[in-house]
């Protein structure tokens, strides 16, 4: 399938890493960045993530594919404007929520040009300097409500994600947002709360620094994540996140109750049940 | 400092990895294993972790250093018996709790031969097949209440841990157990509870398997850990773990309250506060 001229709106961790990987895999006939922050724009060009940075309208006009990789609150506002500007370009987004995105352009005359996607990869860092090579490989990308998109747009989007090494899944946006709350969003909440717990209890930074083991680092790593990205995700997926957060608090209360009552047989059972995650994650 | 004949009691993840690393760094003039499980004993010899497996008494008699690496409930019972058997051997343990261990041998005529240590490294796997090379490197080891131990025992123990690449910290057992609850034990509780949450909510194993991102895997990884090791740790460090678990539940409730009340400014603040962990972990 032919390589295309690509515009990437938001050249941060996700947009920048997509740029690197699309170039690497020969999918891009040039990449134009669109970037609000002039500092990020300069860095993105310096780092070779994009060939140049242009205003949104000009970038869309000169491209065949437009990829949106901004925080999901901005994305909901941006997506209809982008569709207003496209003629025949393919548009897809990389946002972590899908229902509000799809609702925002429901009935738009250019709805067909848009493919709702969520490539499930990220790190706790942000900005163009956080972009890394070989990102996305062997990770899942979810495509939502593809029946509402034009066949050629879906086809190229699928092809591009396959080329960069992702395995494709399709589901409707409602199901996506539910599953994303379970396997991604709740992990971030627990990690943020764990960091706050330790920062509250352990007043000796030096002790954390010196004693922190690999286990602590892995559970608290996500707590470094950018609020500008995560607050809008939690807003847009509020009901699902609240539901799973309530369940999580009640699971933690079971551990608390075991300890309070010194019911160590039940504690053993709770841990054995948790071990079942091995069956799934290997 | 001279290499010594070493007995390792419990040749699993920790004991086995210590055996590999002590051999690698030239600290061992032979390693004898002591292992209740005949299956693990056979594996430990097959894997070359130990030269042979012998009964406890014989192993101690033929060694200059005895390292205890069994679950902490067994350790508390075992330690006084080991001290009953030693003449001039150095004894140290690798347990994740220290106060009960030290109390168990307070006033023992051979108390001086024992050095209470906690090398802060581990993985979520267990058994001799889980032993890995180069474990412990660049991690912290805590030595507790060293004033109660003989100088020569502390000296060799310190030297051995330095040789295998660990940085040494000293603190009293009460402080150790408190800090360990903050930077290690709570991470395991949150991870077990997160696994149970997702297994409870997400009835589609396939969805977890396919969608699980790096973030999910890193927060839930510890949930694979062995209950035989962790239940006794939580028992022995119950008060500290309960204290930090209560704080953690109250931190999670703040996230819940933000979402319920749609107070996204406060949510932003909570996440910014969690980001302070960057300052400590880099």
TrEMBL record, chains A, B:
<dbReference type="GO" id="GO:0004665">
    <property type="term" value="F:prephenate dehydrogenase (NADP+) activity"/>
</dbReference>
<dbReference type="GO" id="GO:0008977">
    <property type="term" value="F:prephenate dehydrogenase (NAD+) activity"/>
</dbReference>
<dbReference type="InterPro" id="IPR050812">
    <property type="entry name" value="Preph/Arog_dehydrog"/>
</dbReference>
<protein>
    <submittedName>
        <fullName>Prephenate dehydrogenase</fullName>
    </submittedName>
</protein>
<dbReference type="InterPro" id="IPR046825">
    <property type="entry name" value="PDH_C"/>
</dbReference>
<dbReference type="InterPro" id="IPR003099">
    <property type="entry name" value="Prephen_DH"/>
</dbReference>
<dbReference type="GO" id="GO:0006571">
    <property type="term" value="P:tyrosine biosynthetic process"/>
</dbReference>
<dbReference type="InterPro" id="IPR036291">
    <property type="entry name" value="NAD(P)-bd_dom_sf"/>
</dbReference>
<dbReference type="Pfam" id="PF20463">
    <property type="entry name" value="PDH_C"/>
</dbReference>
<keyword id="KW-0560">Oxidoreductase</keyword>
<dbReference type="InterPro" id="IPR046826">
    <property type="entry name" value="PDH_N"/>
</dbReference>
<dbReference type="GO" id="GO:0070403">
    <property type="term" value="F:NAD+ binding"/>
</dbReference>
<dbReference type="InterPro" id="IPR008927">
    <property type="entry name" value="6-PGluconate_DH-like_C_sf"/>
</dbReference>
<feature type="domain" description="Prephenate/arogenate dehydrogenase">
    <location>
        <begin position="4"/>
        <end position="282"/>
    </location>
</feature>
<dbReference type="Pfam" id="PF02153">
    <property type="entry name" value="PDH_N"/>
</dbReference>
């Amino acid at each position: 399938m032919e390589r295309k001229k690509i515009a990437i709106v938001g050249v941060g961790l996700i947009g920048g890493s997509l740029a690197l990987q699309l170039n690497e895999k020969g999918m891009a006939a040039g990449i134009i960045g669109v970037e609000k922050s002039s500092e990020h724009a300069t860095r993105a060009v310096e780092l070779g993530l994009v060939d140049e940075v242009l205003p949104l309208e000009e970038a869309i006009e000169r491209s065949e594919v437009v990829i949106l990789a901004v925080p999901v609150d901005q994305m909901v506002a941006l997506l209809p404007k982008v569709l207003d500007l496209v003629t025949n370009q393919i548009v897809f987004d990389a946002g972590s929520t899908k229902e509000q995105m799809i609702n925002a352009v429901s009935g738009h005359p250019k709805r067909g040009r848009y493919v709702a996607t969520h490539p499930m990869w990220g790190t706790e860092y942000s900005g163009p300097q956080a972009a890394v090579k070989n990102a996305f490989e062997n990770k899942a990308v979810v495509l939502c409500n593809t029946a509402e998109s034009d066949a050629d747009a879906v086809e190229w989007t699928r092809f591009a994600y396959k080329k960069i090494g992702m395995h494709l899944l399709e589901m409707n946006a409602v199901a996506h947002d539910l599953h994303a709350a379970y396997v991604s969003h709740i992990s971030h909440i627990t990690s943020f709360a764990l960091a706050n717990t330790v920062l509250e209890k352990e007043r000796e930074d030096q002790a954390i620094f010196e004693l922190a083991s690999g286990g602590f680092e892995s559970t608290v790593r996500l707590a470094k994540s950018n609020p500008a990205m995560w607050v809008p995700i939690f807003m847009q997926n509020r009901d699902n996140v609240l539901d799973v957060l309530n369940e999580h608090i009640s699971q933690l209360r079971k551990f608390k109750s075991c300890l309070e009552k010194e019911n160590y047989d039940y504690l053993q059972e709770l841990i054995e049940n948790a071990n079942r995650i091995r069956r799934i994650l290997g």
